[in-house]
Design brief:
Elements (H helix, E strand, L loop, with lengths): L4 H27 L6 H33 L8 H23 L6 H36 L2 H18 L2 H16 L4
The structure holds fe (ii) ion (FE2).
């Protein structure tokens, strides 16, 4: 059998973590007094908008979460509502990094702000991924049958194609590889 609907999202998480590691390293270097790597962070933000938000969160919000709701997992006041709220917070945090990068980065307080926002964003997404994998996806695996997995995976393919397109998606995976492998450089 092909990878399950939850397994595919975990594979996305591993790609996302490469970029989180690169953002974390960048924040650390800025704290040590190096210049803000504006280009690297700009690329990481593009990845965040395209791969994390439009594509990965899209697949969860359009495909997996509605399937889990049909299986009885609560949205409002329940784990799906929490995940949706966290997606929104992550978008706002990424937007704040984008705004901070436009400040005068010659000023120490502007650099400190970029570093702090980056660290907060990385922590937010890491704990979010942890919750999905250790709480929600486990619920999903116990509630979803083979048909549910298959229809969710079909929905992922449609959503990814509509929202991002195959080529852009590949480009984002290559970008994650590049940013991840440049860590500590
Ligand atoms: Fe996720």
């Amino acid at each position: 059998m092909e990878a399950s609907a939850t397994e595919l999202l975990k594979q996305d998480h591993r790609v996302i973590e490469k970029v989180l590691g690169a953002i974390e390293d960048a924040a650390e270097r800025v704290r040590r007094g190096e210049e803000v790597p504006v280009q690297l962070l700009g690329e990481a933000l593009e990845f965040s908008q395209v791969f994390v938000d439009r594509c990965h969160h899209g697949k969860e919000e359009v495909c997996l979460f509605p399937c889990l709701e049909r299986k009885g997992v609560p949205n409002e006041g329940g784990p799906i509502g929490v995940m949706l709220r966290e997606h929104q917070i992550g978008r706002e945090m990424a937007g704040a990094i984008g705004a901070a990068l436009k400040e005068d980065l010659g000023k120490p307080e502007a650099r400190a702000r970029v570093a702090a926002l980056c660290t907060d964003y990385v922590e937010h997404l890491r704990q979010h991924i942890f919750k999905e994998e250790n709480v929600l996806f486990g619920m999903g695996d116990s509630l979803m049958g083979r048909d549910d997995h298959e229809s969710s995976v079909e929905c992922y393919e449609r959503t990814e194609e509509e929202r991002v397109g195959f080529e852009k998606h590949e480009e984002m995976e290559r970008l994650a590889e590049k940013l991840g492998s440049a860590r500590g450089a």
